[in-house]
Design goal:
single chain; 157 residues; alpha+beta; 4-stranded antiparallel sheet; 4 strands; 48% helix
Length: 157
């Protein structure tokens, strides 16, 4: 009888302290599969099968209903601009042509102040041609680095 509680405590500590915190649904799946594994390991196969069926039905319902889903429409733009070409208004004019939401989140100098690294939170307009958008940005930053991060949760930043 002693090994089961100790193995359960060990498994919980691995989940809690060794992995990055995830979505509550993911944590629920992990805990339920642990419970199913413990039940089957202890010989309670009927409980394991019933729990597995309940978990599968719950997963299917949550997937169909998009329960706990997030709106992922925002993007993070990181733009490097030389000091001599930095014109905030010109950059924001280009961004407003392609995005319906433009929020400057961070300005940072690099290379001893010769470069500016700008970070914008954007919500793009529908049907935007990404190549045209990046080409328009390249004219404002002297063809330096442009990076877009997709699938941000809305209002995450």
């Amino acid at each position: 009888m002693w090994p089961a509680p100790f193995s359960l405590a060990g498994a919980f500590s691995i989940i809690c302290f060794r992995s990055a915190p995830g979505d509550p649904a993911e944590i629920t799946y992990v805990l339920m599969t642990m419970a199913i594994g413990l039940a089957s390991g202890l010989g309670y196969l009927a409980y394991a099968v019933i729990s597995a069926i309940i978990l599968l039905v719950a997963m299917l319902l949550m997937n169909v209903l998009n329960f706990g889903g997030h709106e992922t429409t925002d993007q993070l733009l990181k733009l490097t601009v030389p000091e001599d070409m930095y014109d905030k208004q010109m950059v924001e004019d280009v961004l407003k042509q392609y995005a319906q939401k433009v929020v400057l989140k961070r300005v940072k100098t690099t290379e001893l102040g010769s470069l500016f690294e700008l970070q914008y939170l954007l919500r793009m307009k529908s049907g935007v041609d990404e190549k045209a958008f990046i080409d328009a940005l390249r004219t404002t930053n002297g063809n330096l680095g442009i990076a877009m991060q997709y699938n941000l949760i809305a209002d995450e930043y």
